[in-house]
């Protein structure tokens, strides 16, 4: 291996009925099945305490599964400790070793992987190059800014060419501006090298931006798995609809089913949308605020309760017999005044029936 | 590239298999008379002479045939060399071999002693054994370690602690040595309490010794003498109370007053660390003894007759209060400083005045700290041996009674054991109370949220008396320590007050001859022994302490609480009890180390281990766990993580553990006095010997020298640790955060 380019040994990860119990009866992860394809970036998303970090640590081998099997690259690693798994992890706190300089930090894992010193060094330098930290190798971690420390942590994990690279809320210690840049960098490196990445976050926007696939978790179980678009546009249930982006939940009645299309009725307003296997009767739909059309001739009667100008758009709170919804409107030049009576309709695409 | 986990090369396993064979086949199995490191045994008939032969050669010559079964567990592990670690047979064979070997070594070690079979029923069963065996030597020790670590590797291979060999071995190792050198001797001692003169066991013997009037008598209420147990208890309670009050005064002055010399007060906390415990007693004799300066002065002033009032309860009480107040101060300053100022500030904004704030907020918050300081003072007073020995007079306390029971004319092991049990009961109760009751009651956890507030000053009505007490007691302490230095350069105290260096000359003279330096002073022997024993013990203590701290803070395993209790227990075992139990346990095979330097080293390791454990726990809990975890995910195993991440980051803690165990080893007396021998005399026991011969000048000169040696050791530590921390601060200082 004289060529010190960083390659990829990306491998798939598979969970088969994996559970994790802390103590006797605290269930952190409850019988989950999960497939992460090689070379994909998969995000574990969910509110705090949903088991996403525990899931990540089980892939790393820092927690041992209480039941089920974990496979990495087809090999059963369920009982293998972290040391012996070909997985590396970028920690939320970065966990850079404060007594080693940047280069020593990045070389640390390489020296345990059987590389000669020179080879390890050149690989480490190449890794630093990749994250844009050429020339910082002699610094101590305390002499770097937060964003730079973050990139050292990424380089340190990257140079091992792990089968799976894990990120535990890597952006949570960065300010908002840096966050966007670093997450784009991470995504770019992942796609360039074709790495398998499992990424934990509780920020849905971050998840939507970086992921090939998102795993939404709730109460130690998986709520839904899908691409960002699938999750956003076709959430399975209230929880997912509400967690990914904002959603207005409205009660409706399915009055007709025609093949894959259902016709719903709210206060006489009719709308066609995919039936998603539901049958006629009462149902719930989720509508994104941007998919509400205000000011049509026909539609549901509503009253503007609140109107807020936020620069790029108007935000309205509408009330009516259906309850209360939140809507945004692009027209900032002719805003509606609070108290105005309007008709509210749905965009042709966007509203989605929820499975209860 | 990364090794495949199915590897069949096991370097650690091979190492221990080899070690087992080296211990069995190459090194002398039994204790070698002149010590292994003299290498005299190499020319003394090795490998065939039975005294120095390795086990293999003994068996080969048809001797000590009971060692032969060990060949089986030594050979067994060879079978698994080519097997993978996750092969169930690998684990099973290693566990079998380790358990068999270790178990058999224990069985044979205890069954066959100096006089053949140790238990009568064995003789009845197998007939008399004409041959005997001595204490285990290096060969046996290495062989036993090999079996132990084969066992732990087997247990790890079965999946314990995620199959982590280093952690399992460390747990096994610590449990084994703590069992061997703390629990085993204590158990031996407990049994000794039931032994009659002809060697049988009897409860009535125990009862008669237990209900002795010298132990529980209450004669002092009508003019006779009280029992040692009551004396000890009363003394310990008084010392605990007084040191707590004084310690609190000092802590309050330092944190909550405008007192100008706070740094000087803080310096007081170093004193108990560097002072051999009995030195205070000596200084008090110089002041208040029959020919003490104060006594003489008062006698001349008022024409009264000098009395011996100092010898007894008052003297011991004063000496212990002087010696242990700094300890209470040290405990309480942390507690008093730890009370979040915002609590007190909140009280003040809620319209409480300073006195009300102090009474309703500050004081309740430090109450657990007060209880803690009291219990520490109680335990220290109970365990103190030096001061009662020097000042006790007719006032018997448990620790000295134990000593006289075993070294005095009465030589009564059973009585010593009973006394030790009573003493142990008191200190363990205090220790247990401290842990069970106070452990959960600390209000002073630092939260990590910014506490920018200021502690309010004490109310004036409190501040004035507290400052008077502190200044008074501080001056008294300075006078006492001044006396020590002054006393060392006076010809003969109270009789001939001419200044002289003759005591130093007697103790530390050297002559430079052609052959080099000749250490002609009387103290050099014990001085060098002390330095070298302390220097050997210090790194071992630090190592055992830090590994234990690592296990306690970083690993979770079944029985961890018991493990922690066991390792901290030796803190509550008074030195005299350790001393007695060590001579009872280790003057017979299988571990026969009485009279050697080894027993001193071992006693220091286990006496001072809690210091290392505490230092390690304190600094390790400040290291973020994600540092270890990231090292593990980067492919380092737990040993490599320990060595390359944790140890370097713990350098200040290691240094502190090293210096403190060194210094404590030099000042210890209570356990040492039982364990010293003509060949290995320690400084402290030498000084006590001088005191008993009324040779105060030499004793005090030697003590002064020790204090200065240790002061420089502690100073060096402060300097080095200070540098480490400063280095870190500048690193952070140049760090830019953007």
TrEMBL record, chain A:
Residue ranges of domain ABC transporter in the record: 13-244
Record's GO cellular component terms: ATP-binding cassette (ABC) transporter complex
SUPFAM superfamilies to which the protein is assigned, alphabetical: MOP-like, P-loop containing nucleoside triphosphate hydrolases
Q: Which UniProt keywords apply?
A: ATP-binding, Nucleotide-binding, Transport
What Gene Ontology biological process does one annotation of this record name?
quaternary ammonium group transport
- State if Ligase is listed as a keyword: no
Asked if NAD is a keyword of the record, the answer is no
GO MF terms listed in the record are: ATP binding; ATP hydrolysis activity; transmembrane transporter activity
Superkingdom per UniProt: Bacteria
**PANTHER family assigned to the protein according to its UniProt record, in alphabetical order:** SPERMIDINE/PUTRESCINE IMPORT ATP-BINDING PROTEIN POTA (PTHR42781), SPERMIDINE_PUTRESCINE IMPORT ATP-BINDING PROTEIN POTA (PTHR42781:SF4)
Write down what this protein is called.
Answer: Iron(III) transport system ATP-binding protein
Q: Which organism is it from?
A: Marinovum algicola
Lineage of the native species?
A: Bacteria, Pseudomonadati, Pseudomonadota, Alphaproteobacteria, Rhodobacterales
Automatic annotation (TrEMBL), chain B:
UniProt keyword annotations, A-Z: Cell membrane, Membrane, Transmembrane, Transmembrane helix, Transport
Q: Which family does it belong to?
A: Belongs to the binding-protein-dependent transport system permease family.
Q: What is this protein called?
A: Iron(III) transport system permease protein
Q: Which domain of life is it from?
A: Bacteria
Q: Which residues cross the membrane?
A: 12-32, 65-81, 93-114, 134-153, 165-187, 233-255, 267-289, 309-336, 357-379, 416-433, 464-489, 527-553, 565-585, 653-676, 696-721
Q: Which residues form a coiled coil?
A: none
**Domain ABC transmembrane type-1 positions:** 229-434, 527-717
Membrane topology classification:
Multi-pass membrane protein
Record GO cellular component, one term:
plasma membrane
Cellular compartments annotated:
Cell membrane
Q: Which GO terms describe its biological process?
A: transmembrane transport
Q: Does the keyword Acetylation apply?
A: no
* Gene3D superfamilies to which the protein is assigned, alphabetical: MetI-like
């Amino acid at each position: 291996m004289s060529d010190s380019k960083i390659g990829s040994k990306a491998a798939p990860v598979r969970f088969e009925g994996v559970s994790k119990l802390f103590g006797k009866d605290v269930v952190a992860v409850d019988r989950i099945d999960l497939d992460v394809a090689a070379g994909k970036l998969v995000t574990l998303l969910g509110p705090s305490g949903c088991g996403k970090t525990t899931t990540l640590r089980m892939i790393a081998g820092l927690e041992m599964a209480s039941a089920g099997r974990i496979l990495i690259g087809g090999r059963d690693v369920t009982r293998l400790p972290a040391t012996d798994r070909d997985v590396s992890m970028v920690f939320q706190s970065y966990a850079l070793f404060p007594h080693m300089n940047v280069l020593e930090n990045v070389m640390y894992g390489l020296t345990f992987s059987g590389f000669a010193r020179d080879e390890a060094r050149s690989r480490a330098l190449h890794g630093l190059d990749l994250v844009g930290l050429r020339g910082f190798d002699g610094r101590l971690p305390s002499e770097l800014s937060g964003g730079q420390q973050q990139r050292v942590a990424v380089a340190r994990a990257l140079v091992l060419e792990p089968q799976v690279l894990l990120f535990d809320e890597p952006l949570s210690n960065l300010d908002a501006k840096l966050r966007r840049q670093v997450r784009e960098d991470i995504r770019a490196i992942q796609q360039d090298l074709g790495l398998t990445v499992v990424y934990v976050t509780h920020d849905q926007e971050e998840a939507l931006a970086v992921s090939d696939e998102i795993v939404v978790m709730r109460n130690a179980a998986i709520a839904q798995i899908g691409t960002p678009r699938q999750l956003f546009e076709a959430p399975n249930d209230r929880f997912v609809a509400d967690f990914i982006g904002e959603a207005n939940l409205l009660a409706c009645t399915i009055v007709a089913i025609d093949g894959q299309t259902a016709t719903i009725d709210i206060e006489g307003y009719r709308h066609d949308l995919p039936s998603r296997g539901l049958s006629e009767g009462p149902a719930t739909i989720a509508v994104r605020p941007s998919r509400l059309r205000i000011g049509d001739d026909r539609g549901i009667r509503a009253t503007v309760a609140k109107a807020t100008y936020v620069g790029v758009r108007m935000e309205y709170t509408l009330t009516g017999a259906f309850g209360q919804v939140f809507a945004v409107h692009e027209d900032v030049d002719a805003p509606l005044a609070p108290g105005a009576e309007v008709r509210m309709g749905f965009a042709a695409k966007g509203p989605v029936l929820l499975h209860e | 590239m990364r090794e495949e986990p199915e590897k069949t090369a096991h370097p650690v396993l091979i190492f221990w298999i080899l070690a087992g064979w080296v211990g069995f086949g190459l090194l002398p199995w039994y204790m070698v008379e002149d010590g292994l490191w003299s290498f005299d045994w190499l020319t003394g008939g090795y490998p065939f002479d039975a005294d120095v032969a390795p086990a293999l050669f003994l068996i080969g010559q048809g001797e000590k045939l009971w060692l032969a079964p060990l060949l089986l567990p030594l050979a067994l592990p060879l079978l698994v060399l080519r097997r993978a670690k996750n092969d169930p047979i690998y684990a099973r064979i290693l566990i079998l071999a380790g358990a068999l070997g270790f178990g058999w070594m224990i069985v044979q070690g205890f069954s066959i002693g100096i006089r053949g079979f140790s238990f009568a029923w064995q003789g009845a069963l197998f007939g008399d054994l004409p041959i005997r065996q001595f204490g285990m030597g290096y060969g046996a020790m290495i062989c036993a370690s090999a079996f132990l670590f084969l066992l732990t590797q087997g247990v790890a291979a079965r999946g314990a602690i995620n199959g982590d060999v280093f952690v399992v071995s460390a747990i096994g190792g610590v449990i084994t040595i703590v069992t061997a050198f703390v629990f085993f001797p204590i158990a031996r001692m407990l049994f000794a309490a039931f032994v009659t003169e002809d060697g049988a066991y009897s409860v009535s013997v125990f009862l008669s010794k237990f209900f002795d009037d010298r132990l529980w008598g209450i004669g002092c209420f009508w003019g006779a003498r009280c029992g040692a147990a009551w004396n000890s208890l009363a003394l310990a309670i008084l010392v605990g109370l007084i040191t707590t009050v004084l310690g609190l005064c000092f802590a309050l002055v330092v944190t909550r007053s405008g007192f100008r010399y706070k740094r000087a007060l803080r310096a007081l906390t170093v004193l108990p660390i560097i002072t051999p415990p009995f030195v205070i007693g000596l200084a008090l004799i110089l002041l208040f003894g029959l020919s003490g300066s104060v006594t003489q002065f008062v006698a001349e002033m008022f024409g009264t007759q000098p009395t011996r009032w100092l010898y007894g309860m008052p003297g011991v009480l004063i000496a212990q209060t002087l010696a242990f107040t700094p300890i209470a101060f040290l405990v309480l300053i942390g507690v008093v400083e730890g009370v979040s100022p915002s609590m007190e500030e909140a009280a003040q904004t809620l319209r409480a005045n300073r006195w009300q704030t102090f009474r309703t907020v500050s004081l309740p918050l430090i109450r657990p700290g007060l209880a803690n300081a009291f219990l520490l003072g109680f335990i220290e007073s109970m365990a103190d041996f030096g001061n009662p020995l020097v000042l006790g007079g007719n006032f018997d306390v448990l620790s000295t009674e134990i000593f006289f029971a075993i070294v005095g004319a009465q030589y009564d092991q059973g009585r010593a054991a009973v006394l030790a049990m009573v003493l142990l009961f008191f200190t363990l109760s205090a220790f247990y109370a401290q842990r069970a009751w106070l452990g959960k009651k600390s209000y002073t956890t630092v939260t990590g949220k910014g506490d920018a507030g200021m502690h309010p000053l004490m109310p004036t009505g409190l501040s004035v008396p507290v400052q008077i007490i502190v200044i008074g007691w501080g001056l008294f302490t300075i006078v006492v320590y001044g006396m020590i230095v002054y006393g060392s350069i006076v010809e003969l105290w109270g009789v001939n007050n001419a200044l002289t260096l003759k005591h130093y000359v007697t103790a530390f003279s050297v002559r430079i001859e052609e052959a080099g330096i000749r250490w002609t002073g009387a103290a050099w022997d014990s001085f060098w022994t002390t330095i070298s024993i302390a220097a050997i013990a210090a790194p071992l203590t630090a190592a055992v302490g830090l590994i234990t701290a690592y296990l306690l803070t970083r690993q979770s395993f079944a029985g961890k609480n018991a493990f922690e209790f066991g390792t901290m227990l030796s803190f509550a075992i008074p030195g005299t009890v350790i001393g007695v139990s060590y001579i009872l346990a280790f003057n017979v095979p299988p571990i026969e180390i009485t009279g050697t330097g080894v027993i001193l080293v071992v006693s220091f390791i286990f006496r001072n281990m809690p210091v290392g454990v505490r230092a390690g726990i304190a600094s390790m809990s400040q290291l973020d766990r994600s540092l270890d975890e990231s090292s593990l995910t980067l492919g380092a195993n737990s040993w490599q993580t320990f060595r390359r991440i944790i140890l370097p980051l713990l350098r200040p803690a290691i240094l502190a553990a090293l210096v403190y165990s060194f210094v404590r080893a030099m000042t210890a007396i209570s356990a040492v006095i039982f364990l010293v021998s003509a060949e290995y005399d320690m400084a402290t026991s030498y000084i006590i010997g001088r005191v008993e011969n009324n040779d105060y000048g030499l004793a005090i000169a030697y003590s002064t020298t020790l204090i200065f040696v240790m002061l420089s050791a502690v100073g060096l530590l402060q300097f080095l640790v200070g540098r480490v921390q400063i280095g870190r601060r500048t690193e952070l200082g140049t760090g830019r955060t953007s």
